[in-house]
Structure formats: structure tokens, C-alpha cells
Amino acid sequence: MSAKLTPAVFLDRDGTIIEDRGHLRSPSEVVFFPDTVRALQRLHAHFRLFVVTHQRGIADGIVSSAEVARVNEHTVAELRRRGVVITEVYCCPHRRDEGCVCIKPKPYFLEEAARRYGLDLARSFVVGDHPHDVVLADNAGATGIYVLTGHGAKHRAELPECKAVVPGIREAADWILACREWRLRENDDPGLMTRAADILRHGGVVAFPTETVYGLGAAAFDEKAVARIFEVKRRPRFDPLIVHVSAPEQLPLLVEEVPAAAQALIDRFWPGPLTLVLPRTSAVPDLVTAGLPTVAVRMPRHPVALELIDRAGTPVAAPSANPFGHTSPTTAQHVHDQLAGKVDLVFDGGPCSVGVESTIVSLVSAAPVLLRPGGLSVEDIEAVIGPLGKALRHKRGAAPAPGMLDRHYAPRTPLKLLDRGEAPGAHVCGRVGLLASQAAPCPSSFAAVEVLSANGDLREAAANLFGAMRRLDARGLDCIVAEPVPDSGLGRAINDRLRRSAAPARGD
Ligand SMILES: [Zn+2]
Q: What separation in Å is there between the alpha carbon of 112 and the centre of ligand 1?
């Protein structure tokens, strides 16, 4: 690859940078999308820009080539006035049955541009609102970005395998610039992505960019890895984590069913800043869901996040990559400032484009409920599935799934939490189970014993906590006594969970 070759962005015209209003005859019919100029200004700083448009109306005799040329000239002139240079406009005037060389998705125009302007097509992008634009990118060895403006939403089902599906030109620019940042990092640090994925596969914790904020990720089915997230964040409580997937096809691993309303939201807004709360499968660790019978899932709209999940070969559980109570990080520098040395790798993918957390909607009951406002507006969601109910704030507060806190897993068996250093034997009457923090002092006096971590490893204790409580609960005991763990690091979250399990029945 020669250093002199330039990357380019090839833009479809109608439905991508200007509104699709049928066959345009005159400049007065050109209406730019509100985001077009700013998006192209951002791209123009790093890429050569081209327009590639198919104007079949010429072959059909609906518009003349002179009319199309005037519309194109006007479009280019308007952009130039705002500082955006379109190097060339390529226009195919043919019908498909004419068998021309230039019709999409044939890569003819892209290859011609590459020869003429010295382009590196492997580092170039095609943005369009028709599946042909994405296939065109594939055929030219470039990367396709599919926008949902124009005909995009209507033809999405015909789209071949493509994760870069974005609401419009602005998010297309975000995606392209994120890919550029990623390539720059890989140039500085070859094998970065492979290493990050290996770390996740082997139980490590990686901070990575999404379109909302930087996430602190671990393999979602690895309880000890998930425990490390809480340790690094110094959370005093186990809250449900959002599980990130790289495709909706991964959902059956995580959720029992996808209701019609959820499917409608997925079809419209994934990838994107929308988290869905759905009934979980038994494969999802309790530590990920905080013992809830539900799991929060989303597909992030960021090339690094999606590639990382794909390469790790597992959904990734991730809260925001900041210590508890600190502001959410929207750059890798924020993550370094707050968590330097505590995570195995910080993947710098540039600044996050949305910058606020995802919107969370629960689809567990018949009526969908808004659990947290965020990066996708309630109006957009309601336009697809109708009015959202509001979550009731629970007085014990502040779980990301408020209103469902009373469904957290708590043992049916009465649980007594011992004071630190208190001997468990004093409570032995009837069939008693012991939830020991470390090795049990006198195991024979208990009907059942569960040890959270024999050597006092808090990460292991956190990973075992929910399972140990469930196993004791299944033994039909008269009561469970639980030893607290040291009240530091992850121990605070473990003790918080034990205290809440021991609390009097709800209604207190
Ligand atoms: Zn043609």
C-alpha cells in the first residue's frame, strides 16, 4: 500500500445527502438533509469526496441529461459554498436491462476514480440508502455504510450482511471517522484488536468505545470476569449490566423470547443507543442481571465495539468505564484518567459521538416501560411501538431497572446476616444452612454449607454469590446464616446484596 494513496468517501445523492423527491429536474427541487453539510465538512478534512448517482429517469425519458447535470452542478456548488469540495460526480443514466458497465453495484466508477485520483479503495467508504450501495462497496473492496433515510428503511430487509446501518448522513460520518481512528491506532499498535479480543476471551477487562460512552467490558458468560468489572468500578452494589451483542442473531443465547414490540424496535433502532430489557435465559450469570429474571441487551453503533464482540466470540457485559459516582467517559483519556492501571486494555477509538448513555426500555410486561431516558428519544420509540409507561421509582432506589427491584432474587428461606466476627453456631436451631465467606468453622453442625471463596478471593466470592444463595434456598432449610465478607472493594457490593437478602419482607 503506497503512502500516497488517498482514502475516499463515495456518496449516493438522492436519499443520502439530499431528500429523495423523485426525478429532480431543477436546482429548486434540491433539499439537503439538515445534517449533510456538517457531516461532509467533517469527512472532507480527511477524505476525498465523490457523488455516485443512478439516474434511470434519463433512460426512461422522464428527465433530460441536461436537467440532471444542472441538479448535480447546483448540489456541488452549494456544498462548495460551505467549504465542501466534491471531486467528481459520477452518474449512470441507464436502465438495468441496457447492460451498461456503470450501473450500481458494478464498481466501474470507483475503479475509474481510484485510477484517476490515486485512491486507496480498501480505506474508502460508500454511503447510500439502497442495498446496491453496500454491494457496490463490497465489489470495490471498500466499506459500505447504509443510511435509513431515503429508501433505506424500506429496503433494509434486502440488505446483505452489513453492520454499518445508521439513521442518516451524520451517523454515517461518525462511523467513518471511528473507522479512521481505529486504523490509526492499529497503525501505531499492530494487532491491537486481536489482543483486545484475546483479553476478553481469557477473562480480562477491556475499556472500549461505543457511540454512547466508553464501556468497561468482560465476557458476559464468565462470572469471574464480570466480578472484575464491579471491582474495577468500586461499585458498592451489584446493578444489572448491559450485555452488548454484535448482531440480533445472538439474542437467543441471552433472552427467552423476543416479543413483537422488541423485534420492531430492533429492526428500526439497532445498532444504536437503545437497550431492551427482556426475559433472560438461564445461561446469563446472576452477576450480570443482579439476580433479576431479566437481562438488558443492546447492539452498539460503533465499528470497534462490534468488531471486538465478534472477535471475542461472546456477548460482552459492560457498564460505563468510570468509577462509581464519577461522570461517564466519552474519550479514552477520561478512562485513562479514572481507571489507569486497573483494566487490562483501554481501546482508544476516539471520542463518543452520542455522549449520553442508551435509552432503556423494558418489554417484560405487556406494556413497554421506559426505565431510563438516553441517547434515543422517547418520541422516536413511541412512533414505532406506541406510548411508553413510566417506571415507578423504588424506594430502595437507583437500580438501572427501577420498578423491578422487588423481583431481584432473594432467597425464600429466612436469611440472617451475622455481624463481622460473630460465630454462626449461636443461630443453629432446626435445619440451618451456612453461607460462609471462607472455609467453614464447624461444617458438621449445619445441614448445608456454601463457601463463597475458600481463600478469601472477593472476585471469586462475587462470582459464586447468587449461585450459592440459590443452592441453599433449594435445600428446604429453616434458615440460612450468612457471614459478611471484608467491607472493602467488591466486598461492599457482596455485603450490600447479603443485607438486602436479609432485610424483612417487602412492604417495610
Ligand atoms: Zn450505467
A: 13
365 located within any domain: yes
> Can you give the residue range of the structural domain that contains 42?
8-183
Q: What pTM, to 2 d.p., does this model score? A: 0.87
pLDDT digits (tens, 9 = 90+) for 232-265: 988 888 889 999 999 999 999 999 999 999 999 9
Tell me how far the alpha carbon of residue 113 lies from the centroid of ligand 1, in angstroms. 15
Distance (Å) from CA 53 to ligand 1 centroid: 10
Residue 409: which pLDDT band, with cuts at 50, 70 and 90? Answer: low
CA of 56 to the centre of ligand 1 (A): 9
pLDDT in tens, 90-113: 999 999 999 999 999 999 999 999
What length does the chain have? Answer: 508
The neighbourhood of ligand 1, an ion, using CB within 5 A, equals: 92, 94, 100, 102-103
Angle, in degrees to the nearest 10, between helices 108-117 and 131-140: 50
Q: What is the largest CA-CA distance in the chain?
A: 95
Q: How many Cα neighbours within 13 Å face the side chain of 41?
A: 10
User: Alpha-carbon distance 245 to 286, whole Å?
Assistant: 18
Q: What is residue 488's predicted lDDT score, i.e. its pLDDT? A: 82
Q: From the CA of 68, how far away is ligand 1's center (Å)?
A: 14
Structural contact between residues 33 and 17, judged by C-beta atoms closer than 8 angstroms: yes
Query: For residue 99, how far is its CA from the centre of ligand 1 (angstroms)?
Result: 8
DSSP 325-366: TSPPP-SHHHHHHHHTTTSSEE------SS-SPPEEEE-SSS
Q: How far is the CA of 102 from the centre of ligand 1 (A)?
A: 4
pLDDT(508) > 60: no
CATH of the domain at 432: 3.40.50.11030
Domain total in the chain: 3
Task: Let me know whether 89 and 126 are in one domain.
Answer: yes
Give 106 Cα–ligand 1 centroid separation in angstroms.
Answer: 9
Cα of 6 vs centre of ligand 1, distance in Å, is 25
